[in-house]
Amino acid sequence: MYIVMNASNTVEVVDAKTVKSIKQLDFKNNGKGRQPRYVVFNKNKAFVSSYDGTIAVIDTASLSIEKYITVGRNPEQMAIANNKLYVANSGGLDYPNYDKTVSVVDLNTLVEIKKIIVTENPGGVTATADGRIYVKSTGNYSNIKPTLTIIDSSTDEVKSAKEFSGGKMTVVGDKAYFLTSTGIKEYDLKTDLMSKENIISDGTTFKITYGLSYDKVNQQFFVCDAQSYSGTGVVYCFDKNGKMLYKTNAGVLPSKVIFLSK
Predict the structure, then answer these.
(1) Which CATH fold would you assign to the domain 2-200?
(2) Is the pTM for the entire model greater than 0.90?
(3) I need a labelling partner for 148 at 20 to 30 A (CA). Which of 42, 63, 164, 197 fits?
């Protein structure tokens, strides 16, 4: 299991069952932290985005960083489709001069081959089974509104872009789910229309929604609630119909749930 430690500037590789450390990878450049953000995997490689404008390529056999790929400013989430890596370049540290590109990296050559223009401040990106790339941009918090952009990974053309609000997202079959301050939006990927404003069906409310994960085996949603930005957080488990099954306390700022197959 790879744990990205943003403030500590490391990636911790641990045994998934025992959580014992296997190796700690240093993410500093001449003593300055790269600020790693997210990790995705393809074959025998792990790809880690960092706020210094790079993607680190890690060999999962040797657990060593092979190279750094230069992309846009302050890259965030990544997705893989058609043997290409799509990187959302947010420019989030350059307010109000945000980046507005998605870098496309060829996974054969491990080189950035183009940048696709989207709405300002892209952060979330995910791929569907049929090769569409969905990019969620926050905008500039003023006259440029949050946007959902759809890219065809076979041509790298922008197929559509529309105003859309929603936080962290995950794709389940032909549906996409977006975290909001009040619950989980359901979006139909076949029609590209919102199908439900909130799937939470039992009236459960949250204080600060901070993470969304889905267990495909048990068909359960997990919502991470920060509660505050300094104290204990809470993780809620819901069935596929949006009814809460249980909740449990977590540490500060819980944001993701990982599922380990037995």
Answers:
(1) Methylamine Dehydrogenase; Chain H (2.130.10)
(2) yes
(3) 42
